[in-house]
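request received
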Amino acid sequence: MVDNEEVRYKLTAYIIRRLLILPLILLGVTFMIFAMIWSLGPERLIGTYVKSPEALKSESAEQRIIEKYGLDQPLPVQYAKWLGNVFQGDFGYSNVGRTGVREAITSRLPYTAELAMYSIIPVIIVGIWLGVIAGKNHNRWKDHSIRIFAIIGWSLPDYVFGLLVLLVFYSWLGWFPPGYLSQDGLAALRSETWNSVTKFATIDSIINWRWDIFVDAIRHLVGPIITISYLWWAFLLRITRSSMLEVMRKDYVRTARAKGLSEKVVINKHVKRNAMIPVVTVAGGMIVQLLAGTVIVETIFSRPGLGNFTAMAAVQLDYFSIIGSALFFSTILIVANLLVDISYALIDPRIRLS
Amino acid sequence: MAYSDAVVEKEPVSAEAKEKLIAFYNEVIDPLFVVDGDNFVVNMKGSFGPFLFTIVRYAGWAGILDSAYMKELGAWDGNADGWWKWHDLQPEESPIHMSDAGSGPFKVNVWDQENQQVVLDRFDEYWQGPAKIKQVILRDVQEYSTRKALLEAGDVDCIAVDPIYRGVFDDNPDLNVIEGFPRAQVTSLHMTWGVDPNSEYLGSGKLDGNGIPADFFNDINARKAILTAFNYDALIEDLVNGLGERVPTDLPKGFFGYDDTLPMYEFDLDAAEQAWKEAWDGQVWENGFKIIAMYNSGNEIRQTCCEMVKVYTESLNPKFKVEVLGAQWPTYLKATREELCPLYSIGWVADYPDAHNFFSTYYHSKGYYGKRHGGDYPELAATLGIDDLVTRGATEPDPKVRTQLYRQLQEIVIENYIATPLYMPQGLYVGREWLKGYFPHPLRSNGDTTPDYYYAWKAE
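response:
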C-alpha cells in the first residue's frame, strides 16, 4: 500500500520541478524567435518601423531608425536589452496594436478567451460523445455515419467551412452576423455607464442586466463556434473512438464482461475512464490552440482577438508583437501541458504512482 | 545653412551641436512662417503651384494645428531651443499620435483598436454648415467575402472591392456600382541601371547566361526590349478586368502636362527580339542572361506583371531566363531602395495633384525612383536636360511654357525608354443604393471606395 502523503509529495515535487523549468523554456523560445528576426539584418528590420517607402524619403531617416532601435547591435546585446525591459514590464511598442505589446495582448485576450470558452464546451462534450458512440458501435451504421461526418470535417479547410457557415447562417438566413457585436452593442460597451468586469460581452451583459446585448453577443458567437466545433469534433471523436476501441480489446474489459457486468457498466466504468487518458491530452492541446487564437475564424468572422492580432503582426513583421505573442503562447502551452499532466495523474493512478 | 549641416545628431550632446540647431531654426525655419492674427503666412522660396494643396483637403502632408492645444498635449512648445525633440518623430514618440485636432466636418469619437473601427461624429459647427450624416463608422474587415456578405445584407453601406471582382455586383438592384473612373496613380516597371555589384540578385554578374552585369540596363536596347515585350492590353483586359488605361509616360491621364498625342510603347515581339540582338553588341543574344524580376509578396497585380515579363522575354530566346521573385515587404524595401534588384514592379499614388509629383519622382536623377536607377542615369539625365526640365516645369508660372517643357520632357523619356508605365488604374465603387452623394475623386484617400462623408447622405 502506497502512502497518500508520499503520492502527494511526489506530485508536488513534480509540479515545482516543471514550474522551475518554465522560465528556461520561455527564455529559449524568445531567444530563438529573436535570433530569427535579428538574422534579417538592420536594413530589413527597418521595414518593421516603416510602413511605406515615403517614410524613408529623408536621407538620414534610415540610419536614425537603426540607431534609435539599436538594430545594428549584436544579438546578445539586443536580446539582453529586450529582456531587461521585459523584467520591468515593458514588452516594446506594438505597431499593429498602436500601444504597448503587453496592453495589446491583454486587451485582445478576452475576445479570444470568450470564443475559446464557448467553443470548447460543445467541442469536448459532442466530440467525446460521438467518439464513444462510434467506438461502442464499431463497424455498424452509427460508426460509419459518424466516421463520414468526421472525414468531411477533417478534410474541410477552416476558411472554406467558415465561409459556408457565413453564407448559410448570415447571408441566407440572417441569423448569425459577423463581428463581435452590433454597432448598438459596441456603443453600449463604450458608454460610461457600462460596467466592464470580465470583458466577456456575454457575462458583462448579464452583470449589467442588458439581455439585448447578451443575445447580440451570442448571435455573433454562434457562427465561429459552429465553425470551430465541427472542425475539432472531427479530430476529437476520432481520437476518442480509437482509444475506446483499444481499451475495449483489453483483458480487464473482457474480464468485466465475463463477470457478467452489464454492457453499460463495462463501458462507463471500465472503458470510458481509461479511454479518456489520450483524449485529455488532446483536449488540453486544443484549449491552448483555441487560446492561441483561431486566426482564420477570427478573420472570416471579423472578430477581434489574439489570432487576428498575431497574424497581422506576422504579416507586418511587427518585431515586438511577434515576440510578445510567442512568449504569451509559450506560457499558455507550458501551463496547459502541466495541467494536462496533473489531470493525467488524477485520472490514472499508475501515472500518479510512478 | 542646409538641413543636413544643422541636424547632425538628433539629441545633441555638445553645446556646439545644440547651437547649430538653434541657429538653423532661427535662420531657416522661423522666417518661413509668420502668424499675423488669424493669418498664417508662408514665405516660400520660389513659386510652387501645388503648395496649397499639400496643407489642405485630401493630401494632408502638412497641417496647421492649434498651438495651444498642441502644447496642452505635450507637443512642441514653440521655442527655438529644443525644437528638434519634436521633429521627425516615430509614431509612438509623438504626443499627438493618438489625439485628434482639426476643423473639419467630423470629429473622432472612437478609435477602437481592438474591434478595428473608427467612429466619426458630425461636427455641427463646421464652417460650411453641418454634414447631412450624423455618424460615420469605418470598419476594417480584412476578408473580402465577409465584406461582401455585410454589404449584401445591408449591414454596411459601401465596401472596398478588388478589380478582379468587377461584375460580381452588377445584377444586384440594391447596389450602386460605379466603375472606370480615373485614379491619380500609375503602376510601372523599374529597371535599375547600376545595380550594386555585390547584390545577391545579380547572379554571376556577367553575360554568361547565369546573371547580368550590374550596368545591364545602361544599354537602351535592354530597356527597349523589356518594354516592347510586354502585353499591355492583356494586362488591362485580363488582369484588372478592364479597370485600367494605358498612359504614354508615368503620369496619370488628366494631370497637367498629360498629352495623349505622345507615342506609347507597342507590344511587339519582333522589335523586342531586334533590340535584344543589338543590346551589348550582340552578347546578350549570343550568351543569354538570367535576371530577377521582383514584386512585394501579396500584390497579385505586380506579381502578374513580372510573370508577363518572364513569359514574353523567355519566349524570344531559350537562353533568356527571368526569375520572378516575391519578397516580403522588408526585403522588397531593402532590395529596391539600395539598388539591389535589377527589375521590379512599382507604383506611385499622387501626393498632390500636379505633374511635378510624378515627373520629379520618376525622372529627376534625385527623385524618389529616379535616383534608384543609378548607373549612367544621373549623367544622362543631366546631358539630356531631364533634371533641368523637371525643375523648370515645377516653377514655370506660364501654362503654355510649362506645357511645352513637359511635352519636351516626356518625348525624351519615351525616346530613351526611361518612361516605364504599365497602366493607370481605374476605380471601382460598390455601395448600397440608399447611400447617396458619392462622386469619384482621384486624389482623395479611399476615393474609389467611400463617399466624401460631408457630401453623403442616406435616402429614405
